[in-house]
User: Fold this.
Amino acid sequence: MDLQKVKIGGSSKKAIQQLRAAGYTISSLRFAGYTAAELKEAGYNASLLRAAEYSLMELKAAGYPITALKAAGYTVAEIKNA
Assistant:
């Protein structure tokens, strides 16, 4: 499965789940251009995205709730200031 072709073809939840099942890492998906919002929709949690170096701003923009951001290791102050 060609990661770039799948991204060009769309970023549906199903496509991302197929890539996950094929063994692609979150970092690979990030490099291919998948956004935090797309990965959130596909079921990835904030902790996994933080580990793949998505920024706090990206996670907030994706719509993760404060509880998920705190669980990912961010402080309330960091969340408020982002």
